[in-house]
Amino acid sequence: MAVAHEIPYLLQTLPISVQLIIGAILFSVVAFIYSTLSDERPFPGFPVISLSEQGLGPKASWFKHGKQTVLKGLEQTKGPFQILTGTGPKLVVPNRFADELKGLDELDFNMAFAKDFFANYPGFEPFAQGLHDDNLNQETVRVKLTQSLGLVTNDLVDETTASIYDIFGEDKDWQSTQLKQGILDMVARLSSRVFLGQDLCRNEQWLHIAKNYTVDSFIAARLLRLVPSIFRPVAHWFMPHCIRVRKEYADANKLIMPEIERRKERAEKAIAAGSKPPKTADTIGWMYEVARGRQVNYVAAQLSLTLAAIHTTTEAITTAMLDIIEQPEVLRALRQEVVDVVGEQGWSKTALYKLRLMDSFLKESQRCHPPGFTSMNRLVKSDVQLSDGTVLPAGARIMIAPRYLDPDVYEEPLKFDAYRFLREREKPGQVNAWQHVTTSAQHMGFGHGQHACPEGSSRATKSRSHLRICC
């Protein structure tokens, strides 16, 4: 206590400049603590959901049983409710508001995810690039990749055939296999063929990074959320998964940058000679075109695409394969459709879109095994009033609950019906409304609204290419 009383007198003996520096440091620390803690306080006026009957508080409920917590909130409330996460509260908004929220400029996708995935920490640069507002990745995928699907379809089919034989073998006898791991290996090659070209798509070191960076970074982010926010800026330097993602990012730089520099040099030489840079059917070339001379972190951008593509596509194909195994009669119908369509048109982009039963099957598989139990994650930049008068406050992060199992939307929602969406498309004026890649409030497998997944078409193409071989 005596020492505490002496501190003010000791400070007075210090030069004014030192006192000002100490004061500034103390003010910054207090402001940081206040800002951090205030971000984690619940929003007034919205019920906080927890599994208290299981002896769990709000944060533990979300961390251990997130889906169950959301379902409880939907059962107990008619309006928005909140769950408490490791990075602060989030509001879960009923699905009936999805269409009125889908296009609002007051809602921001990037800012919602940046906080959850620590985009400002080293090793997480791909998240920062993917969430950057310069639209590099979005334009590369939405414009260049989507327009070039016809050009890359044959490459995808060739790589699918080669990878299936390389990974699963050519033995005609029955054998056991780890389906999901094999599909992950195959999807890593397919995605990398489009992203980086034929050479790197078979480079084992790159494939290791492509498959593991996503898993390691998500685990690292999940573990960081368990750390009190005030300690995270220091803790991440010592956490094994954070160390791992920093190394994987550094290794990716060593592999990708030489290829990028070769492409740049080739383009610059062509321009200097008065010619147009050579066109390439991969995202390295497309990113260079989209950048238009801007300084871009191409390695982070490539890993960002990998983050979005490989594991999501792997999950989709794996669950689809398991659904096929459980329904042999569907397999026969899918196989006949492939024989009829491809026999007539070969493997073209047009042929893929004519596989309507396969399209319906994939959409139904996604409905029964959705990639997440919430969708449309957004940050509210300024107050938004819903049609029922509820105000979503500025600074809130929101999620929309889907309706995949709602009997008011789907007849017999618990039944897997491969023909469900094929029948919907056969109704007048509905031919495009229920395609696999079409989003709606009723089916948000690729999100919904202006921030719907830009890779939906590419992922659907990879899925069809794989199933076409397997059928």
Automatic annotation (TrEMBL):
InterPro entries (UniProt xref): Cyt_P450, Cyt_P450_E_grp-IV, Cyt_P450_sf
User: Which Pfam families is this protein grouped with?
Assistant: p450
Cofactor dependency: heme
Q: Does the keyword Transmembrane helix apply?
A: yes
Residues bound to heme: 453
Query: What residue ranges are annotated as transmembrane?
Result: 16-37
Q: Which terms does the record give in the GO molecular function aspect?
A: heme binding; iron ion binding; monooxygenase activity; oxidoreductase activity, acting on paired donors, with incorporation or reduction of molecular oxygen
Which UniProt key words apply to this protein?
A: Heme, Iron, Membrane, Metal-binding, Monooxygenase, Oxidoreductase, Transmembrane, Transmembrane helix
Q: Does the keyword Heme apply?
A: yes
Source organism's superkingdom?
Eukaryota
Q: Which family does it belong to?
A: Belongs to the cytochrome P450 family.
Q: What is this protein called?
A: Cytochrome P450 monooxygenase
Q: Which organism is it from?
A: Hortaea werneckii
